[in-house]
Amino acid sequence: MNVNNFTLNPQQRMYLVAISMFLLILFFASLVLPNVDFSSPLNNATGFLLTTITQSAGKPFFPITILLGVAIGFYHRKSFARWVTVCGQFMMLLLLAFILKFGLKAVTEVPRPYTNLLVNAELIDSSDAFYQLSDQQQSLLIKNSSDIFGQWRTDNWLDGTNYAFPSGHTLFAAVFVAFWGGFLLQNKHYILASTLLLWGVSVALSRIYLAMHSYTDLFVACAFVVLFGLVIPILQKLLAPLERAIERLQHSSQLKNC
User: Fold this and answer.
1) How far apart are CA 107 and CA 80, in angstroms?
2) Backbone dihedral region of 150: left (phi > 0), alpha (psi from -120 to 50 degrees) or beta?
3) Residue 45 burial (CB < 10 Å; 0-12/13-18/19+)?
4) Average pLDDT over residues 53-59
5) Residue 137: inside a domain
6) Which pTM was predicted?
7) DSSP-derived secondary structure for 65-96
8) pLDDT score for 8
9) Would residue 211 be called left, alpha or beta, if left means φ above 0 and alpha means ψ between -120 and 50 degrees?
10) For 106, what's the count of Cα atoms within 13 Å in the CB-facing half-sphere?
């Protein structure tokens, strides 16, 4: 391939603008935010806020967030056929992200940060030892640590006893922001795009404050989402026949109604 002939289409450009802004804000936050004092339990207001934000990109609320993206696409649709294919692109990117997440977690086996806290509290000998426990033993250990670290954090730990790398919540949020934020930027809806960006960064940071991930987990997740932007033209080509088929059906239906 001739590098000089390599160009980004408008959708790719705005996708990359959105994810680049996400990365820049997250990087700046990592520099200026103070280290988290995990020895101090979260108060109810902060715990509720962080948990709600993190759940919006995971269980149980991520389907609602997906529907929000679909609604954004529908509201700004150029045609029904185009809307279907755009949503199809988004779902295929999400599928790619989830496959990557499960694969990397299984291969890398990086312990979650909270396991280090359990080691420091002398509740287990090592982070690796945590993953040798049965599910029931892990749950009991985490529940017994709630007096030290607070129930808001430990409730989240109970929902994430698998490995850390990369952050699945950040993958989801970054794909959402890159795709639908880029879509909104392309349609010049800058305020709504900024709102999505703020939400996405908040999701990523919530994983830090809940001791579920390190910044490395977050940045690597975002880096993969940058690479996903290269896949967009492939998805466009894959779904182009579907878009044409829907348009033909609509055209045939209109002719019958004439």
Assistant:
1) 41
2) left
3) exposed
4) 95
5) yes
6) 0.91
7) HHHHHHHHHHHT-S-HHHHHHHHHHHHHHHHH
8) 81
9) left
10) 6
Q: Which amino acid is at 111?
A: P
| Domain hosting residue 148, numbered range | 112-162
Count of the separate structural domains present in the chain: 1
In a domain, 138, yes or no: yes
- Looking only at Cα atoms, what is the longest distance across the chain? 77
Cα 142 to Cα 146: distance, rounded to the nearest angstrom = 7
Residue 48 belongs to a domain: no
- What phi, psi does 133 have (nearest 5°)? -80, 155
CA 228 to chain centre: 13
Q: What value does the mean pLDDT take over residues 33-51?
A: 94
> How confident is the model over 82-106, as pLDDT tens digits?
889 999 999 999 999 999 999 999 9
Alpha-carbon distance 198 to 192, whole Å?
A: 10
CA torsion sign, 159 to 163 to 169 to 175? negative
d(CA 246, CA 84): 9
DSSP 43: P
Residue 73 lies in a domain: no
Q: Are 23 and 222 a contacting pair, CB within 8 Å?
A: yes
Nearest to 50 by CA among 202, 160, 166: 202
